[in-house]
Amino acid sequence: MQHRVLGHNHLMVSSIGLGCWGMSHAYGNADEIESLATINRCLDLGINFLDTADVYGDGHNEMLIAKILKQRRRETVVATKFGFAGDEHGNVAVNGKPEYVHAACEKSLQRLDIDEIDLYYFHRLDPNVPIEETVGAMADLVKQGKVRYIGLSEVSARAIRRAHAVHPITALQSEYSLWHREVEKTILPVCKELNISLVPFSPLGRGFLTGTILDAEKFEDDDYRRKIPRFESETIKKNHGFIQQLRQLAQREKVSPAQLSLAWLLAQGDLIVPIPGMKQRKYIDENLAAVELTMPVETFQELNSMNMDVHGNRHNPYNLQFIDTDC
Predict the structure, then answer these.
(1) Which end of the chain has the lower number of beta carbons within 10 A, N or C?
(2) pLDDT at position 327, please?
(3) How many domains does the structure of the chain reveal?
């Protein structure tokens, strides 16, 4: 297994990590026995970077991972996130108040059944709390030995700079893939400047870049993708041309579309550590093979030109409100 160092620190992780959200019914039914077997198999193969959040399954995901950590804590680098919380009216909101930061961390530590979180992310920016206050509270957790390193998720370049001035930011988690490349405009440059790792979630476009999703009607009723405009039936049809190009390139290189997509992402720089979601063992070997994949420069150039015809937004209007941008 190849490894990469997160940010300016000495936090060594596998070149690709494991996104665990799907194990808590984000994309339809999940089998706990298979989920646990998948995590164990990843660890067996050297994938040591596990990504979760307190909001995934309302704590379920952290408790699931805890079952693995009881036996294999020393083999893992555990990243979790906080920030989403219900307000007094029962609506979903983001809470970045210092007192909430400490309370959320205590609950995550309890659910994970560990003494220290390796990487603790602020899930989304709280527009009502200065980022300096939130990060200051996260820095306190580091001083207390409850968190090793801190990160942010889906924030603007401006917010990254403000946060980094308070305490070193080790990693930024944001969506980045062949069909969502917005981070290349301002986010990736500031990460490179400040030596902050970029941890792309949904590096396979929530499954679309595997080339196997051509009909949204096959999603289960509770599948999160049913809420995403990019996966609406008519929009998916418009994106068939995109996936057809990807399939043709993959066939030419004698790899799968998923492998080609991950290899392209890894080639964007050593600061990139994608975390594809895998809730079944059958996907592990395929994704892991992308780490060793090398391709001609011409192939990368062709991949770079493919983003022109992506249709549909990556989030619905409700979820877009929680994303901080420089626009």
Answers:
(1) C
(2) 52
(3) 1
Domain encompassing residue 288: 3-207+261-295
Domain assignment present for residue 212? The answer is no
Alpha-carbon distance of 227 to 244, in angstroms, equals: 24
Domain assignment present for 246: no
CATH number at residue 107: 3.20.20.100
DSSP E strand boundaries for the chain: 3-6, 11-14, 18-19, 49-51, 77-82, 84-86, 92-94, 117-122, 147-153, 171-175, 197-201
pLDDT tens track for 220-233: 888 888 888 888 88
Q: How many of the other CB atoms lie within 10 Å of CB of 290?
A: 23
Question: Within a domain: residue 26?
Answer: yes
* Closest of 305, 189, 325 to residue 249, by C-alpha: 305
pLDDT tens readout for residues 201-218: 999 998 889 988 877 777
142: how many CB neighbours lie within 10 A of its CB? 17
Q: Among 155, 117, 110, 108, which Cα is nearest to 134's? A: 155
- Report the candidate in 268, 251, 192 with the shortest Cα–Cα distance to residue 15: 268
Tell me what percent of the residues of the chain surpass a pLDDT of 90: 70
State the CB neighbour count (10 A cutoff) for residue 105. Answer: 22
Structural domain contains residue 59 = yes
Q: Kindly state the percentage of the chain with pLDDT values over 70.
A: 95
Two tokens, residue 243: 């996936």
